[in-house]
Amino acid sequence: MMQALADRFRDTMRRTASGVAVLTTDGVGGRAGVTVSTLCSLSMEPPSVIACVHRDSRALDTILKNGVFVANVLAEDQEHVAKAFAGMIPELRDNRFGNAAWTTLVSQAPALHGALANFDCTVASTFDFGTHRILIGAVTEIVSKESDPLLFIDRSFRRLAA
Q: Model-level pTM greater than 0.70?
């Protein structure tokens, strides 16, 4: 019965649209990144976000070692970045940063040029739940632009309709 609930949950959640973000980091632990579909605001005081990363993600350990990350919220024309950091482009698995332009903000973690938003964060707290590690990022800098977001729904990337 429990598996049936998990299957129904997965099938129902796939119908809910979410924005797409790539968490990136650089520092003593190295450079890494991962595509996530769970990023949301936590608090205005202090400015903070929540991101959820699967505990099996290789990027998670690097983010935790570095203690910093940039949550790069993808614009509608950045699907290729989402796919690269999700491991969906085999020729980019060893150089996921190679298909886009990057800069840095306060943390020195990679910030995607042209993203809808870049939230530069320090890792303020973490905790585990189920298969994921929940990261709370204290925001130290923000860069944003006017654009439409890249969305993820029904196991595929989508754009807003006109």
A: yes
